[in-house]
Amino acid sequence: MSSVRVLVGTRKGAFVIESDGKRQKWNVNGPFFGGWELYHLKGSPVDPNRIYASQSSSWFGQKIQRSDDGGKTWNPVGDKFAYDGTPGTHQWYDGTPHPWEFKRVWHLEPSVTDPDTVYAGVEDAAFFRSTDGGQSWHELPGLRDQQGAKWMPGAGGMGLHTILIDQNNPNRIFIAISAAGAFRSEDGGNSWKIITKGLHSQYIPDPTAEIGHCVHRICMHKDKPNTLFMQKHWDVLRTDDAGDNWREVSGNLPTDFGFCIDVHAHEPETVYVVPIKSDSEHYPMDGALRVYRSKTGGNDWEPMTKGLPQENCFVNVLRDAMAVDTLDDCGIYFGTTGGQVYCSSDGGDNWSPIVRDLPAVLSVEVQTLP
Amino acid sequence: MIRVVLPFHLRNLAKVTGEVTLEVSGQVSMRSILDALEARYPVLQGTIRDHGSIKRRPLIRFFVCEQDWSYEDPEAPLPEAVASGREPFFVVGAIAGG
């Protein structure tokens, strides 16, 4: 019988949570790396026992941990993230030039073909690759050629937080950067194209500029790799030409601010978001935690409330904190800044917490195991 | 023998309990102690001093004989009490955060 393994990164450690395919009883393991920030953990699609984790601390810097036994034991690997050459400057908050400085790894994306190859999205935004299981890291600097000198951090930092690899064509990679935008590579990350046409952001001087859009998250269904969905600072959008043109599909959402977005594992036009009240009030509207589902690829959204708190709930759901499994009844998962991780094992109709009182959740990933 | 006291998270990372003792050849300075520490426990590279620049990380402090040596020359000789092992060299994480 299939099973699932949920990888949860929090402000104070990592947790590995397992269940059989029924997804009713959960075994919570952790905290691993207690007291450290775990921005992201993700398993290799080629070897599910190979898991990479980003462990960081304002005091002690960046560590990368690797497990080769499904999260039972961990060992540190390489953590030197040196920008290629002389990286120059990006813009600071006041518009002045500011040197590129490595702060942390936001996202780790294992290759779809090789368990020893893994990509890292870092702050200050850059794209790194390891081909030796995380022992050494090398920047692919072509990304910063895309007007990197104009990039400017948002309040949460200038992190490269989204890495999507087209499973049918692993040389095609999409990435997104807070307050910079979205980018596509057709050659495995060596060269990039800005893909922000159609985005409109009122908070930047030129609302339709190529650079400066605060993209919060992008997602893709593996069977429709030209269709991407985006949760932007404000606005939910989609593209059907791999990012060359975007259009808004916020439709009837009560607010289109939010962080996370994901696609059903078997229905490429079924999309999930968690609307957040505003960019000034990072919690659900009316104190009611609602996942909104669209079965039409956007525009028509319905609230999913069963099993979720509908009063006095003022948590946030961060950009990397939603994931889906690939069981026949697709499971949807998300974690909150209040430390709850919720699961729906029926595509969003009904929800229940798989764990309630973790530290603030930064990321959620799910592995579907044979 | 040099004695080094590490903060909780670095003891965990290095998988040690209590004080660390090190053999340091030549002049005993903050740099020679940290070089020896990182050679013994490579996982600590980048945690006390930045990779590359090997500058002290901003939220790390060094204490010697009840004095804050964080801003002293890393090459400066440390007091005999540390060099002889009577007093430990403290690596301290700033008290901050939640």
Distance between the termini of chain B: 36 Å
Sheet/helix structural class of chain A: mainly beta
Number of helices of chain B: 3
Give the uncertain stretches of chain B in residue-range form: none
As residue ranges, the low-confidence spans of chain A are none
Helix content class of chain B: 10-25%
Task: Describe the main β-sheet of chain A briefly.
Answer: 4 strands, antiparallel
- What radius of gyration of chain B results from the CA coordinates? 12 Å
The general outline of chain A is: globular
Q: Identify the strand order in the major beta sheet of chain B.
A: 2-1-5-3-4
Mean pLDDT over the residues of chain B: 95
User: Approximately how much helix is present in the residues of chain A?
Assistant: under 10%
Oligomer: heterodimer
What is the rounded distance between the termini of chain A?
7 Å
Q: Please give the most extensive interface between any two protein chains, plus how many residues each contributes.
A: A-B, 13 and 18 residues
How many beta-strand runs of chain B? 5
Instruction: Characterize the main sheet of chain B.
Output: 5 strands, mixed
Computed over alpha carbons, the radius of gyration of chain A is 19 Å
